[in-house]
């Protein structure tokens, strides 16, 4: 499975550690940033959005809190970025919400926990059924594209 990953400077080190931990299970494509130098997290969210909209793959976004980068990504049609804090969040994000991006707080979440949540997220299928109406409503919100 191919996954995209991107972060801002505040979560650069965690992103690098996460790539190392996941590269044996997934084809991980790094969209940046490439250092701890200060950057705008929205630029990396937008890079991720482009990839997801064009490929239907899934991704991981990180910033210091996970909040800003997930808000930026969720501004666009067809994007469902879920800020996850534990394994149950990661499972339900896919199972009930068909999330296509998992977001993490680099400053608040241990890399080991990010690895576990990522594995659950990328191996859990959307349940569909009664949840599909919600996803259809989500998909009809917003006009943004990159």
Describe the 3D structure:
By secondary structure, this protein is of the alpha/beta class. It has one domain (2-139): Sugar-phosphate isomerase, RpiB/LacA/LacB (Ribose 5-phosphate Isomerase B, Chain: A), CATH 3.40.1400.10. Helices cover 43% and strands 16% of the residues. It has 6 helices and 5 strands. The chain has a 5-stranded parallel β-sheet, sandwiched between helices. Helix 1 crosses helix 5 (111-123) and helix 2 (41-55) crosses helix 3. The longest helix is centred in the N-terminal third of the chain and has 15 residues, at 41-55. The protein is globular. The model has no long low-confidence stretch (mean pLDDT 94).
**Biggest sheet layout:** 5 strands, parallel
Q: State the strand order across the main sheet.
A: 2-1-3-5-4
By DSSP, the count of extended strands is 5
In the residues, how many domains can be counted?
A: 1
In CATH, what is the class?
Answer: Alpha Beta
Q: Name the structural class.
A: alpha/beta
Helicity level, as a percent range? 40-55%
Distance between the termini: 24 Å
Task: Give the integer mean of the pLDDT values.
Answer: 94
H-E order: EHEHEHEHEHH
CATH fold name = Ribose 5-phosphate Isomerase B, Chain: A
């Amino acid at each position: 499975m191919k996954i995209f990953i991107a972060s801002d400077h505040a979560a650069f080190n965690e992103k690098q550690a996460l790539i190392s931990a996941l590269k044996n299970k997934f084809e991980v494509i790094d969209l940046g940033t490439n250092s701890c130098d200060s950057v705008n997290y929205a630029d990396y969210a937008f890079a991720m959005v482009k990839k997801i909209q064009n490929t239907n793959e899934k991704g991981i976004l990180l910033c210091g809190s996970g909040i800003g980068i997930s808000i930026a990504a969720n501004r666009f049609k067809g994007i469902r970025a879920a800020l996850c804090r534990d394994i149950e969040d990661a499972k339900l994000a896919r199972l009930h919400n068909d999330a296509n991006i998992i977001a993490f707080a680099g400053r608040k979440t241990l890399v080991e926990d990010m690895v576990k949540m990522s594995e659950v997220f990328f191996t859990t299928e959307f349940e569909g059924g009664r949840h599909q109406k919600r996803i259809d409503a989500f998909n009809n919100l917003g006009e943004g594209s990159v």
